């Protein structure tokens, strides 16, 4: 999967739901940590959309507990044909444990998204840039999802997104929460390369998400012709 332009992911724990994502999404983000037998589901996957595999650790807002098992499963997932990209937490790369997933992804020709989440706040622009720079050192796309507490946080994030995009650095930026909700459809206009949306709002995988049909429609309507 390449991230030269915006990729909208339908975020789901259920790969069987892929047919209903096709109309709106470019890819499926498979939240392995929220699925009951994720490797079996991937093995049986015969959908059309490419898969971005995420196995989010509990310490980063997900539900996967054992870090060794979690990263092993991710390393196996990237060898599967449908998996064209993988998400690895920046912290897992900085402590060295996630490196084997990146190596496996490289061998398999899958792209690597390096993610950082802040579920409490946004930090200042320098903190955000530090996370993006570190992500770019390890992977193809640096993803930063922060929690916006007000408009200023969103503006800082959008300004940074614009800067990295102008430098041709692939970043994905998201301001989570109510104050940041609009960033999910506006950040792509400033160069954010990935969006995440559930098929059904009741299955949101993060605060402030629009459903995938709404996200696709709004991004399309707002995009310059
Ligand atoms: O990291 C991300 C971004 C996200 O947290 C969001 O805010 O849309 C949703 C997650 O499913 C995904 O793995």
UniProtKB/TrEMBL annotation:
GO BP: 3,4-dihydroxybenzoate biosynthetic process; amino acid biosynthetic process; aromatic amino acid family biosynthetic process; chorismate biosynthetic process
Binding site for 3-dehydroquinate: 29-31, 56, 184, 205, 209
Recorded GO MF terms: 3-dehydroquinate dehydratase activity
UniProt cross-references to InterPro entries, sorted A to Z: Aldolase_TIM (IPR013785), DHquinase_I (IPR001381), Type-I_3-dehydroquinase (IPR050146)
Subunit structure: Homodimer.
Family: Belongs to the type-I 3-dehydroquinase family.
Function: Involved in the third step of the chorismate pathway, which leads to the biosynthesis of aromatic amino acids. Catalyzes the cis-dehydration of 3-dehydroquinate (DHQ) and introduces the first double bond of the aromatic ring to yield 3-dehydroshikimate.
HAMAP family: AroD (MF_00214)
Name of the protein this chain belongs to: 3-dehydroquinate dehydratase
Source organism: Haloarchaeobius litoreus
């Amino acid at each position: 999967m390449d991230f030269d332009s915006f990729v909208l992911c339908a975020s789901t724990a259920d790969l069987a739901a892929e047919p209903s994502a096709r109309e709106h999404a470019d890819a499926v983000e498979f939240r392995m940590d929220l699925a009951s037998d994720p490797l079996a589901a991937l093995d049986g996957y015969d959908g059309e959309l490419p898969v971005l595999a995420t196995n989010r650790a509990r310490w980063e807002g997900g539900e996967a507990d054992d870090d060794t098992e979690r990263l092993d499963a991710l390393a196996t997932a990237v060898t599967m044909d449908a998996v064209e990209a993988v998400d690895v937490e920046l912290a897992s790369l900085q402590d060295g444990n996630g490196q084997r997933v990146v190596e496996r992804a490289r061998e398999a020709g899958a792209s690597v998204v390096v993610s950082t989440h802040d579920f409490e706040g946004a930090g200042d622009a320098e903190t955000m840039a530090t996370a993006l720079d570190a992500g770019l050192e390890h992977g193809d796309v640096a993803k930063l999802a922060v929690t916006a507490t007000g408009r200023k946080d969103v503006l800082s994030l959008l300004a940074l997104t614009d800067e990295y995009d102008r430098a041709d650095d692939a970043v994905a930026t998201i301001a989570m929460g109510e104050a940041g909700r609009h960033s999910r459809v506006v950040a792509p206009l400033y160069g954010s390369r990935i969006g995440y949306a559930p098929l059904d709002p009741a299955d949101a995988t993060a605060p402030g998400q629009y459903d995938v049909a709404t996200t696709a429609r709004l991004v399309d309507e707002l995009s310059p012709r």
